[in-house]
Design goal:
- The structure holds 2 protein chains of 2 kinds.
- In chain A, about 50% of the residues lie in helices and about 10% in strands.
- Chain A is built from 11 helices and 5 strands.
- Chain A has helices at about 25-40, 45-70, 80-95, 95-105, 125, 155-165, 180-190, 200-205, 210-220, 225-245, 250-255, and strands at about 110-115, 135-140, 170-175, 260-265, 270-280.
- In chain A, helix 9 packs across helix 10.
- Chain B contains 9 helices and 5 strands; from the N terminus they run ααβαβαβαααααββ.
- In chain B, helix 7 (about 130-135) packs across helix 8 (about 145-165).
- Chain B starts with a helix and ends in a 10-residue tail after the last strand.
- The chains are: A alpha/beta, B alpha/beta.
- Chain B: Belongs to the beta-class carbonic anhydrase family.
Chain lengths: ~290, ~210
Amino acid sequence: MEWIICRSVAIGNCASRMGRFGNENAYETAIDSLDNLLKNCPELKEKAGKKIEELVKELSLEAKVEHDVKAVVSQLDPVEKIRKGFQEFKAHFKKEQTLFKALAESQHPKWMIIACSDSRVDPALVLGLGLGEAFIVRNIASLVPPHSKESGHSSGASAIEYAVLHLKVEHIMIVGHSRCGGIKALLGMKEDGSNRFSEYIEDWIAIANNASKTAKAKCSHDSPFEDQWTCCVKESVNVSLWNCMSYPFVKEAVQQKKLALHGAYFDFVNGDFQRWALNYRVDEPESL
Amino acid sequence: MRKAFEEFKAYFKKEKELFDALAQSQHPKWMIIACSDSRVDPALVLGLELGEAFILRNIASLIPPHSKQSGHKSGASAIEYAVEHLKVEHIMIVGHSRCGGIKALLEMKEDGSNRFSEYIEDWIQIAQPASEIAKAKVPHDSPFEELWTCCVKESVNLSLRNCMSYPFVKIPMEKGLLTLHGAYFDFVNGAFDVWKLKCKIDEHQSL
């Protein structure tokens, strides 16, 4: 399949927001530090004033954007909204009885899709998938950890095993997207962990560490952050694709041509969707 | 898929105001945890639009309890992000009819003698307590479907309680800033039941 080539723009502020419980203390601590500094170095007051002005402008913009989104997205009570939504589905359910009777017995999706949990990237809505068509995993930044014998819950591994060996899907597609907060946080992570902001999030997104290193090497220091961000999202998709291949049951199915792996990038800024295939081939050995 | 994306693109062009806003940031009110099963897409079943719900999907919509143990934490990281950063107001965990994961759970032998997978059983055994509760609740001679349905609902309740084991969930819940809901989607009969998880600790009384 050929797809429209996407262009990428990426700004975002999700991952950098302070948590509910940390923000008040962090603010007070920061203000105290600034106060102390300016008492000792009053000559810095003018510079500090200018920086504070910039910060106020930035935060005002953020507050305005949040207000705009809330003004545009539905203002119905959330529970009422899903009640109405389900009533519409129920009408569809009654009409399509043949389909739903078949689905009630079993599922035979041809696709497994791994997408980000981001509310703006629902694969069913974006790709027009109907019920029964795709087995879908969603997590932060659509990551797949590598095959590992270590114990510990593996939601991704179990889902891929089920999809490949039991549902026998024919395609796995991993979808990255523009303005991914998880990838932005990854790019901002300091190696010594000194700017850690979460209990679990950084450990999760560290799965894509190599993508961050690759993106930083590929993009020159003076390119806009958006370029590095987009590059890192796509590299992260590739890391997850290779991690998929580290599962013997995936590798075997790919080699037997029963399964195809695809990467994808959904750009909701420009309304584009780009897809690429993972081509894996091991040639016959040749005698020297 | 290409055709469907063309339709999306037309919709995208039409709803410019919405997508300009969404391109800047997301403010979903919901976090929904649903099964990866192809028949239970929450957006399609509940008529959700882009921007409305932050969605986590895995086998049997399970949430493991809070734990300091190392290991990948896809569920914990997603909940932390949704509650602390996106500040969602509602979390809903959706179980469903004919869940293959829960069926496998019910059929698992304690000694592991009928193990059939590398990863699946280790994942679904998160819901082991729900299996025990369901087997205790449902009479032995009832049809398997009854036990199956009961176990799915108990698994949802277990995952809700596991959600509450995360301090960053419990604290906003106690402040009334976050509501937890369980749900059961029955695609055999076309029904969707929801229930709230309420947790109240009374004032301490001196004896």
